[in-house]
What we know:
Among the domains are: 1-6 and 20-43 and 232-331, YVTN repeat-like/Quinoprotein amine dehydrogenase (Methylamine Dehydrogenase, Chain H); 342-418, Immunoglobulin-like (Sandwich), CATH 2.60.40.10; 424-508, Immunoglobulins (Immunoglobulin-like, Sandwich), CATH 2.60.40.10. Strand 23 and strand 24 form a beta hairpin. Helices cover 0% and strands 51% of the residues. The protein has 509 residues and is mainly beta. It has no helices and 43 strands.
Amino acid sequence: MKRLRRAAVIAGAVLAAALGLGGQPEIASADTVPPGTITVPVSDVNLQDVFVDPINHTAYLATSDNGVSAIDLSSDTAAATIATAAKGLAGFTIDPASDTIYLGSWFSNAITVISGSSNTVAATIKLPAGMLADSLAFDPGTGLLYAGTYNNGILVIDPASGSVTATIASAIHFHLSLALDATHHVLYAEPFGGNQVLVIDTATGLVTTRFPVTITAGGNGALALSGTGSTLYVIGGQSVAAYSTATHVTAGITIFGRESVPSAVLDSTTGNLYKAAASVSGTSSYVAQLDGATATVTGQIPLPGPGRVAIDEATSTLVYATAGDVLLIPLQATGPITSSSAATFTAAKKSRFTVTAPGTPPPTFTEAGKLPAGVSLAASGILGGMPSMGTGGIYHITITARNGLGAAVTKPFTLTVHQPAAITTASHATFTHGRHATFTIRTTGFPAAAIRATGPLPAGLKFTAAKNGTATITGTPAGSAKGKTYILRLTASNGVGATITQRFTLKVT
């Protein structure tokens, strides 16, 4: 069962003195982050990576300084600071059986081993001089650790002894990104700048094939595998591409703005990929939610600044880390549309109505049915525009909200377009005495206008107003009206805009 996150400040929470924290976890500003988001302050760090250990339900922030900050996700509090000898911590993997965490480094030829149960450094695996491992993968079946190094390919390490047992693709002298499919005994690696992925048989340690990729992940990115191993994600700072592991053909590529941090995480329960991103202008930050099958964006979560992202799958909570705060953002499927089911616009005037529905990421909106010319529904939920003249009436549509989590929700919606009244028929008519005739006065507008007439009519004629925006002058003019002219004042009004008047001339011949 998901733990319900609190929407108020957590009272009485004591933060670890070792982190130099004061006060309590905070609710993040409502105008920059989704509802229910909790902010856990941490001491300023030079953040390199963030990841979640699902075994001990803890988030870890690796820094370029000597240390790892731990956040207890059960209580939403900072739990500990773990001092490490290695600098520039980056890249991690977990042995779930023993709850052991392995951390690579940008600057030290060492792999830090952390016990998840005690949040302490359990060991340090020394690598040969000059070998820097910043991408790691652990095979729970064999118990072997794979380390992508800067200048000597991939090291195969026995964590129990801390020794390197083999080297794969040693001729590669660039950073490597790794992803392991332990079920099928396949290791994927991409060298920085190589624009290719190496497919490695872990049983033999041989590169079985290479296939080209459109974007580069290695050294400035990452690789990730879907839960079934059918899709490989190549994650760059400004892009994500999904490749079929069977055909090596891309299923989709999404390009982002200026964000250079290639932080992304895959939610194995939903298949969604979450990517730290920024606008093209670089003025706003967000986490993009991508459909795992096609790498297309299905939602965006606005955030107050750049950071790195991880996920707590047990509670469907994103962990977004910045230099001074960790934001705990509960993901939420789209709820019922909460805005009104009706709105009224006026023709030839700009109008706007906001459709709302809960959900994180905020849902996108679409509509089915006919809207008046000049009006449209934006994906953000803004129904707006300037209805064209002549579009007055009632429009019935169905609005759908979806955010890539759970089922879409729908709601019937009625848009009424009011249009000012206008008299469209001629301002004169001629009748003949002794002959029955009818003249119909017509109007446009919505609602239908009420028509009134003031002034004399010849004997034998009658003015009758209908409820459909028309009126008639009908009858047989008496002989006494022959040769005379009658002036009427016609008015039409429907409560929209000003009353319309017309000077109407009636002649009898």
